[in-house]
Design a protein that fits this description.
By secondary structure, the chain is α/β, with parallel strands linked by helices. It has 7 helices and 9 strands. The radius of gyration is 18 Å and the shape is globular. Bound molecules: S-adenosyl-L-homocysteine. S-adenosyl-L-homocysteine (SAH) binds next to strand 2, helix 5 and strand 4.
Amino acid sequence: MRARRSTLQRAAAALLALALGGSQRLPLNDPAATRVTDGDQADYAEARARMVVEGIVGWGIEDPDVIAVMGRVPRHEFVPDEYLDLAYANHPLPIGYGQTISQPYIVALMTQELGVQSGDRVLEVGTGSGYQAAVLAELGAQVYTIEIIGALAETAAERLERYPNVTTRHGDGYGGWPEEAPFEAIIVTAAPDHVPPPLLSQLAIGGRLVIPVGPIGDYQELWRITRLPEDPIESVSLGGVRIVPLLRTEEVSE
Ligand code: SAH
């Protein structure tokens, strides 16, 4: 046990250094960067390092690029002020309008399964807080992200301005983003009860779609669907998740 703990402590120290490096790269004129004091930034970096060691690596995420990015993106800048103290806890948090920022482990798992390479074109359906889009952007992807709730789309677009490789849109992502297709990867962060056919058709050959599918208000199954050159698709189940439902335009009041 003692050896294991010291390995974890070393990993945490390394991640802490990484995280501090990441937060120093924030633009000085970023309003979110001035929301907390320098002391708080160090606390957040430490909390983020702990989140990565315990909730990301500790829960089985292995992709080194995903682990590094989760240690770098300032998740506290994507959660409402009243939940700042829980920003690095390993569970989803409310972001208003009945929606949530996904649990860090789920963000890491979905990102790992997307297999994103730098320069890949990636579509995200369900921008929400913008956190997942930031994670994908930090991996070097060209990110196209759609959000159906106008107020969330607007806030996320402001937060994501610092990433020139992210394009945001307000609308229903069920139909994908045909003008920008094909995509090497598509991630759906809200759960439909079936796979939207337009998303499958907007996948590049060899492209991956990571999507939770299942009944509203119950557990859904997370799938990785790969479009193969010869067979139409290959589906792999990644296990059970509980994620907010995919909405359609007629279900959104504003
Ligand atoms: N990826 C987000 C998770 C947000 S939860 C994050 O990192 O914070 C899922 C989001 O999907 C919600 O914001 C919800 O409003 C949005 N959503 C639901 N149905 C949608 C649809 N049809 N098109 C686009 N966004 C949708």
